[in-house]
Amino acid sequence: MTINLALIHYPVLNRKGEIITSAVTNLDIHDIARACRTYGVDNYFIVTPSQDQQNLVKELIQHWLHGPGGKTNPDRKEALQLVKVVDSLEEIKAKLRPSAIYATTASKTDGCLDWMELRKKIEIGEKDNILLLFGTASGLAKSVIMESNRALCPINGPTPYNHLSVRSAVAIGLDRLLGNWRI
Amino acid sequence: MTINLALIHYPVLNRKGEIITSAVTNLDIHDIARACRTYGVDNYFIVTPSQDQQNLVKELIQHWLHGPGGKTNPDRKEALQLVKVVDSLEEIKAKLRPSAIYATTASKTDGCLDWMELRKKIEIGEKDNILLLFGTASGLAKSVIMESNRALCPINGPTPYNHLSVRSAVAIGLDRLLGNWRI
Questions:
Q1: From B69's CA, which of A50, A122, B15, B34 has a CA 20 to 30 Å away?
Q2: pTM for the full model?
Q3: Do A165 and B30 touch (CB under 8 A)?
Q4: Residue A70, Cβ neighbours under 10 Å: how many?
Q5: Cβ separation of B157 and A180 shorter than 8 Å?
C-alpha cells in the first residue's frame, strides 16, 4: 500500500469563493514534508501550474537535497526527498493511478467520509494506493472535490471555528489516519 | 475547566543539546493561535524573556486586533485574541495556578502519559485547569520537563522519524485531546 498527499495551489478558492492560483508558501513545503515523513507518506506532491512557482520550489529542494542545507540538517533532507512538483491533479492521476482519491474540506459536505472509517480501511489494507488532497488559500475548488472519490469530513474541535492552517490540517489528518495512538 | 497552552522559547535546546533562547517565529503565532481557537483553548502563552521579541509579538498582535489586519480577516483576529506574551513559565504558574502541567517531548521518557489517557481525563472533567507545554527549537530543556507534573508520550506515526514542526505537534496534540472524532 502507498499513501500519497497532494497540496493543491490551483484550482483553489479565495475568501470570496473565486477560483485562483495561490502562491506556494515556504513553510507548507517544510512542515508538510516533515509530517509526511513522520507518518510514512510515500509521495508529497506540490501542485501548481505556475512555472515560476515550480522553479522556486525546485530551487529550495535542491538546496536541501544537494546543497548546504542537507549537510547541516540531514533530517530535513530526508523529509524533502518526498516532495515532487507537478502541474496538475491530472498529472498525478496519470503517474500514480490511485485506487482512491480523498478530498479534504473545512465545510460540511453531504455523505462525507469519517476519518476513523478511513483509518480502519487503511489498517485492514482495503485500499492500496491512496491519494489525499489538501487545498491552500480558502480550500479546494468544487471541481477538485468532484474529481475525488469521497470528501473527508471537516476536522473540528469542540467549537464552530474552522480556520486551521493547511499545515495544521495535514498534520492532524495524517495523525488521525496513521498516528501511533490507540483508544 | 480551562485548557491552556504555552509555547516556550526559553529554556529550550539547540541541535547540540545546549540551552538557548529561540527566536519567535511568525507562523508559530498564527498557526498555533488558530489551532487553539479551533479546539477551545482558553489561553495561548508565548514565553520569552527577550523584551525585543516580546515587543515584536505585541506589535504583530496589535495589527490584527486593533489595526487593519482584523478588519480584512476577522477570523484571524478571533484566534489572536488568545495570545498572551509572558516572561517565563513561573509567571504563568503564578497567574493561572494550573491544576496540572503536561510537558511534551519528541523523545521517549520513562512513565510518560499516553495522550488518550489525558483525553479521557479531560472528557470526565478530572482535571480543571490544564497547562500544556510545547518547546521550540530542539525541544524543552530538562528543567521544564521536571517542573511539569507529567511528560506526554512522543507523537509518532508508523516510522521512527520524529522531527515534526512544533506547529504540527501542537495541532496533532490538541486534536488527540479535543478533536471531534470517535472510534
A1: A50
A2: 0.97
A3: yes
A4: 19
A5: yes
